[in-house]
Amino acid sequence: MGGIKFGTDGWRAVISDDFTFDNVKKVAQAVADFINNDCKGLKVKEPKTVIGYDTRFLSDKYAELMASVFGANGIRTVLSDRPTPTPSVSFAIKDRGYIGGIMITASHNPARYNGIKYKAYYGGSAGAEITKKFESYLGKSEVKYKPLDQLKSEGLVEVDDIISGHLRFIKSYANLKVIKNSKLKVLVDSMYGTGNDYMAMLLKGGKCRIDTIHNEKNPGFGDINPEPILPNLKELAEKTKKGKYDIGLATDGDADRLGVALPSGKLLTGHKIMTVLLLHLLEDKSMRGGVIQTVCGTYLIDKICKKYGLKMHETAVGFKYICELILKEDILIGGEETGGVAFRDSIPERDGILSGLLILEMMAMRRKKMGDILKSIDKEYGTYEYKRLDLKYPDNKKAALMASLSASPLKEILGKPVVEVKTTDGYKFICEDRSWLMLRLSGTEPILRIYAEAPTEKKALEVLEFGKRRAYSV
Fold first, then answer.
1. In this structure, are residues 446 and 432 in contact, taking their beta carbons and an 8 Å threshold?
2. Which residues contact 114 (CB under 8 A, 6 or more apart)?
3. Fewer beta carbons under 10 A from the terminal one: N or C of the chain?
4. Residues 455, 387 contacting (CB under 8 angstroms)
């Protein structure tokens, strides 16, 4: 059981290595034990769970296996009738009042991975107190299992559409009419994931033109990682530029994150995506509330919060930490640097489809190109360029690196004095001009992440390279 560990967003492992049918059964039994032992006091509308799955190899079979174990443990379960966006699972839990749910996905990880995310009764990621319970139950009970057809006949498992309700909610949240009446030309890339052609479906029949790519099922994701960043979005960026689209939008493997390509072929960082969404809610929709970003977030958000008098919260990396604050505080928007954003009066969960539509809503309401919107932001708040580097870093050096950064924190970066050090999650070194460098071990993959932000792209790359040299100096 030692190989099964829940990280920043569930358990992920390589298919047929650690992610096997046998281990999925064991995790299913542990989660079933948690539900039966620890969720009895929950006041919910329906004592059911829901299970969704992505387009990865065998995801549908893993989902059926989870349902078979849940049902055998007497847990009434709704199984999605097709590959499902993660936010659709979360919305179903919150909207229908279920105990919780499972999403079979490894999100943006390479195709050889799969994973299990647990969404609690509030429709958001499980916190550490829940995932530690799962781990404590692993191997403690004999796995119970019944054939799926038998459980269906017994009424313990039902197959249902859990996506349509989520799409109806999106229709009520975003002003689709103003988007449809615009003449925007949009290219949408679902990266062979669960985003499918849902954006195009929602905007069908209007003056705007929505073209799609990679909305067919491909468990190998076209030999790219389904994460909406370069180089994975090279084709989207090139086609957006060549086809003279106003904007290109991409959702990741389980459609909870968003990538944005400009007509120039440049991609927006997750920081800029959250920035424009925040300003849209503030300036175009007159909404107010607190703002959450992770410790590797941008100083640009800090400046906007100061201007509007908003409370800014900072968390460790992992959306479960953002979710925890959404449940406790008056929050307008919460997001992370990878393009995952949650919104007030929605679910405490990232939603790539809704994020994409709100980007289009902003452009349609302002009647401006995204490039012009970004220029106005730079003019008012200054320029902030962000870069990230993921390194395969030797296991035997990881502890030594972190110990080294603790014992001898950086005093300066490329001649600029370090004025603040944050250790919320890894080590973040902030210079007097608010440029910064951060080194952090990933919670879902065997890699070291290096982050940097500076006034120019050139300077950000230089800071990133400085961080790389520091990592290899151990």
1. no
2. 12, 13, 15, 19, 56, 57, 58, 59, 62, 104, 105, 106
3. N
4. no
Cα separations (Å) of 43 from 47, 97, 311?
9, 9, 31
224-242 burial: b if 16+ Cβ within 10 Å, else e = bbbbbbeebbebbbebbbe
Q: Does an H or E element contain 325, and which?
A: helix 319-328
Backbone angles phi, psi at 93, to 5 degrees: -60, -50
Q: 58: alpha, beta or left, given left = phi > 0 and alpha = psi -120 to 50?
A: left
- Using CA atoms, how far apart are residues 360 and 325, in angstroms rounded to an integer? 27
What does the pLDDT profile of the chain (474 residues) look like in tens digits? 557 988 777 899 999 999 999 999 999 999 999 999 999 889 899 999 999 999 999 999 999 999 999 999 999 999 999 999 999 999 999 999 999 999 999 998 999 999 999 999 999 999 889 999 999 999 999 999 999 999 999 999 999 999 999 999 999 999 999 999 999 999 999 999 999 999 999 999 999 999 999 999 999 999 999 999 989 999 999 999 999 999 999 999 999 999 999 999 999 999 999 999 999 999 999 999 999 999 999 999 999 999 999 999 999 998 999 999 999 999 999 999 989 999 999 999 999 999 999 999 999 999 999 999 999 999 999 999 999 999 999 888 899 999 999 999 999 999 999 999 999 999 999 999 999 999 999 866 778 999 999 999 999 999 999 999 999 998
Residue 407 in tokens: 């014992």
DSSP output for 341-408: EEETTS-SS--HHHHHHHHHHHHHHHT--HHHHHHHHHHHH---EEEEEEE---HHHHHHHHHHHHHS
Q: Is 445 helix (H, G, I), strand (E, B) or coil?
A: coil
Q: What is the residue type of 178?
A: V
Indicate the pTM of the whole model. 0.94
Q: DSSP letters of 229-269?
A: STTTTHHHHHHHHHTT-SEEEEE-TTS--EEEE-TTSPBPP
Closest CA to 196 of 21, 54, 51, 320: 54
Kindly calculate the radius of gyration of the chain based on its CA atoms and give it in whole angstroms. 22
State both tokens at 142: 């004999």
Measure the CA–CA gap between 38 and 51, rounded to whole angstroms. 19
Per-residue tokens: 257: 């994150």
